[in-house]
Amino acid sequence: MKFSNTLIYWYLQNKRDLPWRKTKNPYFIWLSEIMLQQTRVAQGLDYYLKFTSNFPTVFDLAKADESTVLKMWQGLGYYSRARNLHFSAKQIAFENGGQFPTTYKDIIKLKGVGDYTASAIASIAFNEPTAVVDGNVYRVLSRYFGIDTPINSSKGIKEFKELAQSLIDKTQPGTFNQGIMDFGAIQCKPKKPLCMFCPFSESCVALQKNLIDVLPVKEKKIKVKKRYFNYLVIKTKENKTILSERKGKGIWQGLYQFPLIESNKILNKEELIASEDFNTLFQNDVSISLFNKKDIVHKLSHQHLYTQFWVIETDEQKAADILWNEIENFPVPVLIANFLEAYKPKK
Length: 347
Prior knowledge:
Largest sheet: 5 strands, mixed
Helix content: 40-55%
Structural class: alpha+beta
Distance between the termini: 68 Å
CATH architecture of the largest domain: Orthogonal Bundle
Number of strands: 9
CATH topology of the largest domain: Endonuclease III, domain 1
Radius of gyration: 24 Å
Shape: globular
CATH class of the largest domain: Mainly Alpha
Strand content: 5-15%
């Protein structure tokens, strides 16, 4: 009880002024929690305001087409979050009559919602005493209690969840959960935590035993896979290009891209032209130049994309049916969005 009291007192003095903190509307809380999965508050805030402005109710989000949702999500990454959000919005609006599920047990059934998100929504919107556990919570609890169980192990996930659940203030669970998240984000930070001004400094095991830089412990990361992308940026004399939607279940599903040749290494111009995929696409003479003078490395959680953008100018290309000034209407990966921002084709 002392831990929760101290934490809540700190939170009430130091909490961040965030728009989703000013409502009990589960739709807005759900929206914010989905956006903040793997995204910093500073980055997610503008997207939250944009979504709530364009989709003020779950019905508005449900009625939008997926391409519009993905376009508005562009730049936030991890696009499966947007697809799952849209899927669940349609479920809530059209199958549940707009009624948001009210318990942890039902909230976690929504597509894209896990233990953390369900706990946050249930506690904040419906006052259900279910503890949240995310990176901030792992850090606070592992340091304060001196726990070196790896936070990404099955044992660690269970241990920290049970500990958080035992500490939660059952009379104000939403306040406790938001408090421990804010405490980890702005006080007990990953680097250079503010230990000198910490209300737990006298009882924190990590501080007493000089383990601040050691805890929390993580098991060794999965090996990062390298992939090599060659985008063919086509420009015809009619100022048209090719964009196609990514299918399947891979990264960027539902987003649009230029024709892509994936290789097992970085290609030079001669190797690209000699490839079967290139010759299938182009039978006539073309002018080809490499836009980026050095490789663009786009880092995802388990893969690094070494990317080259090849500008292909040609008199005609039958499959090129999209005008350059229409490209901005299509949702694209941030990798391509950044290229388009830098590339200004000749008129």
